[in-house]
Design brief:
Length: 528
């Protein structure tokens, strides 16, 4: 960090990047960058009592919980210069019970019960109280009562990663159900101890069926889609410009937005903090967040359900569907949204429901998720990593013969067992998905199923001042020329004529029998 950022008023002082630091005290005492969320935290405290917040992994949920803990415990010295400094009564302190499931992986009901007892024992030791009950619910209930009595104040309950024991076992439904039942036994205590609780907040990745998991805790306010708190976790564009101004000296500002901004929960769009911090540290545009946890389970599910990948960037779902995530009910829409691979693009409010259109939040997610899908399509990650750059070079050179050879080779590389008991090769969506994922993984400007008054074009790609229009058809054995003919008959090129750029009309035909490319016709329009 020897390079110095400067402005018209002089050099900017660079601070420590809080990479991996989830403790508020360490950030404040360690001269780290901090985007002030304490004002929003106080808004929560002043306007309600029970809260639930869902955000994807590595989005700052643990830091939020730790910040709330320090506010309630009256750690005034940590808040100098922040919004909370003058808004909070630092003379009033509350006993805080913090339960954190982020550490370790549990695979049985017995292991979960043991872990909960360990967490509750840690809280007893920290608060200086001792519980005599033996059951999980009994210990938790007694802990709340004893802490309230000893400190003369109602208790604050903070639960971090409330759903991790379930998500760690999501592919094993019996175990996941056991985890859900064990957690329900713990969380049900909160409602029963209402008289002794001042404030409670639970955070996690999934909105894991609030009704089934939290049982009688029906007064838990879900702020996941509350526009006022959309920026409670994550960095806003303004915070990148102000808090991290000293880090921007050699980085393309628009490129930062394209790569990492875009997560939206009906309010201000935000960056994943992990991405921003790793970018400022490495000075490299990479899939920092995606690389820390490739969603193998999600990719498997997308393929099992024959998801048409070009549709992923424009899924339409109701609010209730996005909230439906349980061991036995798992929609693709909810899973993609809650884990951060899709976000809200637009909202349509109807008389009896709210409808959301989802999209990829940014270039990182779009290219990385499609790259992961390609690896699973081919069952050979090394080969996919080699072919994708070749495709980019072929597009730049307008080498259509080379492009045909590349895709033919790719389809031939897919193992035969992929097609066993699977009719996926009989419909155009499968082949279109492979094509789309290749272009999307490269981060190119791709527009799928572009609608016009004459129909829908399968895919349009823009690169280097040129336009590539693709239409796909599945044939029995031999090419029939119908794909290119449809582009011409429907006049799919017309909307692009005004751009004055070369337009390459490409008809691609796939054989059901050989399961590969058998037709690849190209006609180019040069606009004078």
């Amino acid at each position: 960090m020897s390079t110095t950022a400067t402005t018209t008023t002089g050099p900017l002082k660079r601070r420590k990047l809080p990479i991996g630091i989830q403790t508020f005290r360490q950030i404040r005492e360690g001269n780290c960058y901090y985007a002030d969320k304490t004002g929003l935290a106080l808004d929560l405290i002043e306007t309600g009592k029970y809260y639930f917040l869902s955000r994807p992994r590595r989005f700052g949920k643990s830091l939020l919980i730790d910040t709330l803990k320090d506010i309630f415990e009256g750690q005034r010295d940590l808040f100098t210069g922040l919004a909370a400094q003058t808004r909070w009564d630092w003379n009033r302190r509350y006993p805080v019970i913090r339960i954190d499931f982020s550490i370790g992986v549990l695979h049985s009901a017995a292991a979960l019960a043991q872990r909960i007892r360990e967490l509750l024992t840690e809280q007893q030791d920290r608060l200086g109280v001792q519980c005599r009950n033996q059951s999980v619910a009994g210990i938790f209930s007694e802990l709340i009562q004893a802490a309230s009595a000893q400190y003369g104040q109602r208790v604050v309950v903070l639960v971090d990663e409330y759903d991790k024991p379930i998500l760690d076992n999501i592919t094993d439904k019996p175990v996941a159900r056991d985890m859900r039942d064990g957690l329900r036994d713990l969380y049900s205590v909160i409602k029963g101890q209402d008289a002794n609780i001042h404030f409670a907040m639970l955070t996690g990745v999934s909105k894991n069926s609030l009704v089934s998991l939290f049982s009688g805790l029906n007064n838990l306010k879900d702020i996941t889609l509350d526009a006022r708190y959309s920026a409670l976790c994550g960095y806003t564009d303004d915070e990148i410009d102000s808090v991290f101004a000293a880090e921007l000296f050699d980085l393309d500002r628009q490129q930062i937005r394209d790569w990492y901004n875009g997560y939206n929960w009906l309010g201000t769009r935000v960056y994943n903090p992990f991405d921003a911090l790793l970018l400022f540290d490495t000075r490299e545009f990479r899939a920092h967040w995606f690389e820390t946890g490739t969603p193998d389970f999600l990719v498997q599910l997308l393929l099992q359900r024959r998801t048409f990948t070009p549709e992923l960037g424009r899924i339409v779902a109701s609010e209730s569907l996005l909230s439906t995530f349980d061991v036995d009910t798992m929609s693709i829409e909810a899973l993609l949204f809650q884990t951060g691979y899709l976000t809200i693009d637009s909202v349509r409010r109807l008389p009896g429901m709210t409808q959301f259109t989802l999209c990829y939040p940014n270039l990182e997610v779009r290219s990385s998720l499609n790259g992961a899908l390609l690896e699973r399509f081919s069952h050979d990650p090394a080969r996919q990593s080699d072919l994708a750059p070749q495709l980019y070079d072929l597009l730049l050179a307008c080498d259509f013969d080379g492009m045909k050879r590349l895709f033919t080779a790719f389809y031939f590389s897919i193992p035969n067992q992929w097609f066993i008991n699977n009719d996926i090769a009989d419909y155009e969506g499968y082949y279109a998905s492979v094509f789309y994922s290749y272009f999307a993984a490269l981060g190119l400007d791709v527009d799928c199923e572009k609608s016009s008054n004459v129909g829908r074009l399968d895919m349009a790609v823009r690169l280097n001042g040129q336009i590539f229009l693709f239409e796909f058809k599945v044939v029995e054995i031999e090419p029939e020329g119908r794909a290119l003919q449809q582009i011409k008959d429907k006049g799919y090129a017309r909307p692009y004529l005004a751009l004055g750029q070369p337009i390459h009309q490409i008809g691609v035909e796939f054989s059901k029998a050989s399961r590969t490319v058998v037709g690849f016709e190209v006609e180019t329009l040069y606009i004078k």
